[in-house]
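Practice record 12: protein with uracil.
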Amino acid sequence: MKTYIPTDIIAKKRDKKQLTAEEIRFLVDSYTDGLLPDYQMASFLMAVYLNGMNDEETAAMTEAMVNSGDILDFSEIEGIKADKHSTGGVGDKTTLVLVPILAAAGVKTVKMSGRGLGFTGGTIDKLQSIKGYRTALTEEEIHRQLRTLNAVMIGATGDIAPADKKIYALRDVTATVESIPLIASSIMSKKIACGADVIVIDIKVGSGAFMKTMAEAEELSRRLIKIGESFGRRVDTVFGSMDDVLGYAVGNLLEVREALETLRGRGPRDLTDLCLEIAQKIIDAADIKADAAEILASGKALEYFGKIVTAQGGDLSSIDDPNRNAPFVREVKAPKSGTIAAVNAAEVGMTAGMLGAGRLRKEDEIDPLAGITAAKKLGDEVKAGEVIAVLYTSNESVLDDAEKRLLAAYDLK
Ligand code: URA
């Protein structure tokens, strides 16, 4: 690899000039290998944050991050492989509903998910609230289950895009997360390295999301699709609202129960609609003739959910078990009558975290039973004294503060 002087590249971006793919690759590789110090990478990221990157630069950044680690290959397994990613929501249990719908339609999905941090939940934490569920499978088990059940739902395997991991951690502490080219290359590097042919990205928009406006979300969508094209992958996007929690449940077992209710055809409208929209986009992009809504209504997706969970060691009866409830429960009541004019979904997520459903630090333990079930949604009328939400926790001492925080997240007008 040609050697460059890092300050020349940083200065070029500072002066709003276009970088070559080699220059970008040099910075990313040197940083991943520990040869470029944090302060130079941070300075480069801030220059990108301020001056942006065009489509070629963004594709080069993505490629450098893809090539920094393992690249998974499922090409020996017949059929279209699909993947879905969400930019991070509160109460987002779509994977648990979507993957079984796709499996029933004949689309193969290796769904690798992460753990939750901050106000967003992680699908792996949700799955681990099912007793016995194994989120780590061997390569042989993954291949076998893909052939027999069309899907696995697991934690990340291997070393996918380590450059993104390192750069994302630096962005987090240098105020450079909210950059569309950096977000687009970060997301796509992981999805491309995971080997899917068809990728749908659920771009969250609203108070609880990185993208606060539709204009930003549309620009991110354009970038993601463009990167997909440059790698020969079919990429589509949906826009999921984060002006409220998705569905009613926030918290691990509570969300798995809501996902199961959705698979039984009794799920909340917003969650059901979003899952069907994503599923149909993937089915269409995979050129399969199937109707996602019909699959859900037929009970086939519910059947696949049961088979996938059981194959991965999960005890299905532990989901509905009425004895598995948090010991401390508090109803949060409306202080006055009115309409719910706004919901700060991020704050609802943080409140669930306080109750034990999430982590503030990477090493924190999760309480699978903790969380919140909202009783009201954005736009609903409420009477004074009516229940807005119910809090669940194993830690009684946090209930008073959690109640105050939750009430502050609901704007009653
Ligand atoms: N999600 C990602 O994976 N990367 C970002 O930069 C933002 C959201």
